Amino acid sequence: MGEQVVLLGTRYSGFAMRARVALSEKGVDYEFKEENLGNKSPLLLQTNPIHKKIPVLIHNGNPVCESLIIVEYIDEVWKDKSPPLLPSDPYQRAHARLWADLVEKKVSASAMKVWTGKEGERQPAVEEFIDNLKLFERELGEKPYFGGESFGFVDVALIPFYSWFEAYEILGNFKIEEHCPTLLAWGKRCMEKESVAKSLPNPKEVYDFVLVLRKRFGFD
């Protein structure tokens, strides 16, 4: 019997997308189980009893939680498949982890303020979000990917937001390309990779999903 790899997540979750991209990049066959976060499955509650959140990677019965930890786990376990996502040099590896953490603390936090904000009150959130994207615009510079020539850990951490860009732009009434053209070009470059293209949903579907969430939680 071969390896059993199961990923618990939702289609539009950027955190689950990270795991999907990493698994696809490594060429790992896995089963994706769509979770209903309004009625969480016993399997999710059993495998992530502390946070009760997605994603959860279940590898041969052993659960791994938190998206960036999952990506590192995938990189370590299937280290012989595809190029490594994290560099071998300790300093470069630490640098990649720092920027992946900044995706969590800067981009993710400010992006949520954009899509949950009320009409007419989003401008501060939009400005904060753009400022945070500019941090990554400068870090990327003229490199094709954040780690250099190869698609890697920081790219995996950030690329799911690309599928949400259209929703942010429509709700916030701004264009990312006007502020971060290099970052937008990076996103398009990443989408040319099969591992990314098949793991990210259509931006229009994401926007429709966001509208449903806004109505459900009373943000409109």
Write up what this structure looks like.
This protein is an alpha+beta fold and 220 residues long. It has two domains: 5-77, Glutaredoxin (3-Layer(aba) Sandwich); 90-216, Up-down Bundle (Glutathione S-transferase Yfyf (Class Pi), Chain A, domain 2). Helices cover 55% and strands 8% of the residues. The chain is built from eleven helices and four strands. It has helices spanning 14-25, 42-47, 67-77, 90-116, 123-140, 153-158, 165-172, 176-179, 181-191, 194-197, 203-216; strands at residues 5-9, 31-34, 56-59, 62-65. The chain has a four-stranded mixed sheet with strand order 2-1-3-4, with helices on one face. Helix 4 (90-116) runs antiparallel to helix 5. The chain starts with a strand and ends with a helix.
Keywords:
alpha+beta, 2 domains, 220 residues, 8% strand, 11 helices, Glutathione S-transferase Yfyf (Class Pi), Chain A, domain 2, Glutaredoxin, 4-stranded mixed sheet
Name the CATH architecture of the largest domain: Up-down Bundle
Find the structural class using helix and strand composition. Answer: alpha+beta
Oligomer designation: single chain
The CATH class name of the largest domain reads Mainly Alpha
Number of strand segments: 4
Low-confidence spans: none
Report the principal-axis shape: globular
State the CATH topology of the largest domain. Glutathione S-transferase Yfyf (Class Pi), Chain A, domain 2
| Rg, Å, rounded | 17 Å
Query: Distance N terminus to C terminus?
Result: 51 Å
Q: Outline the biggest β-sheet.
A: 4 strands, mixed
Average pLDDT rating: 96
Number of domains: 2
Q: Which sequence of SSEs, written as H and E, runs from N to C?
A: EHEHEEHHHHHHHHH
* Helix percentage: 55-70%
Task: Write out the strand line-up for the largest beta sheet, numbering strands in chain order.
Answer: 2-1-3-4
Number of helices: 11
Q: What portion of residues belong to β-strands?
A: 5-15%
